Amino acid sequence: xxxxxxxxxxxxxxxxxxxxxxxxxxxxxxxxxxxxxxxxxxxxxxxxxxxxxxxxxxxxxxxxxxxxxxxxxxxxxxxxxxxxxxxxxxxxxxxxxxxxxxxxxxxx
Length: 108
What we know:
- This protein is an alpha+beta fold.
- The protein has one domain: Nonribosomal peptide synthetase, condensation domain (Chloramphenicol Acetyltransferase, 2-Layer Sandwich).
- 47% of the residues lie in helices and 15% in strands.
- The chain is built from four helices and two strands.
- It has helices spanning 3-14, 19-35, 80-92, 99-107; strands spanning 39-46, 67-74.
- A two-stranded antiparallel sheet has the order 1-2.
- Helix 1 packs across helix 2 (19-35).
């Protein structure tokens, strides 16, 4: 099994998470080292068709409902498990998967 296969297929199962959480943990560490900062900000983009708003039926709509919202990634050192879990918890704590951020930012 290659490193890429392990990262994309085995690691998420070990931590009971999604591959995005693993990739964001890696990105936080790499950008932190590169920039010399303890925390880096990145924009996360979602396709907007996930069940973010309960009861909202978008099955008969046309188009893309992209949601973009900022997250702060810690530039962890050492324990990958801790870093992956921290990203997982942070992303799960974003209300409605960030769908309201754009509305508040651009329409508010």
